[in-house]
């Protein structure tokens, strides 16, 4: 069985001006249907901060896209995010 993507890691400068070298972005909500998916993407200081229940660095940002078929919407969602300029340098984190 293949590993699942659980988030994206990258260096990011946030609105506060703080630059975080290992910021971790994860999809905290996904909804929609075969016509359009809506994603809430939440940034954390790092993966461990997210896993240990710490507060996000900023509120979630919503994205949306048209999925290809009904299979693996989570994988399609992360592929969509990495196609955006905002996440072009992100590294997929798998489990």
Number of domains: 1
> Which percent band covers the strand fraction?
35-45%
Estimated structural class: alpha+beta
Main sheet characteristics: 5 strands, antiparallel
Overall mean pLDDT stands at 94
Task: State the helix count.
Answer: 2
Element-by-element helix/strand order: EEEHEHE
What proportion of the residues is helical, as a percent range? 10-25%
Separation of termini? 11 Å
Cα Rg: 13 Å
Biggest sheet, strands in spatial order? Answer: 4-3-2-1-5
Furnish the topology, listing elements before pairings.
Elements: E1 5-13, E2 19-33, E3 36-44, H1 47-51, E4 61-65, H2 73-83, E5 91-94
Keywords:
44% strand, 95 residues, alpha+beta
Describe the structure in your own words.
The protein is of the alpha+beta class and 95 residues long. The chain has one domain (5-94). Helix content is 17%, strand content 44%. The protein is built from two helices and five strands. The protein has a five-stranded antiparallel β-sheet with strand order 4-3-2-1-5. The radius of gyration is 13 Å and the shape is globular. The model has no long low-confidence stretch (mean pLDDT 94).
What's this entry about, in short?
The chain is an alpha+beta fold and 95 residues long. It has helices at 47-51, 73-83, and strands at 5-13, 19-33, 36-44, 61-65, 91-94. It has one domain.
């Amino acid at each position: 069985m293949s590993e699942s993507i659980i988030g994206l890691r990258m260096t990011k400068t946030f609105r506060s001006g703080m630059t975080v070298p290992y910021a971790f972005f994860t999809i905290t909500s996904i909804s929609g249907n075969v016509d359009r998916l809506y994603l809430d993407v939440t940034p954390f200081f790092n993966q461990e901060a997210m896993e240990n229940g710490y507060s996000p660095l900023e509120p979630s940002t919503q994205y949306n896209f048209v999925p290809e078929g009904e299979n693996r919407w989570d994988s399609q969602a992360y592929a969509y995010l990495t196609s955006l300029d905002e996440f072009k340098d992100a590294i997929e984190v798998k489990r």
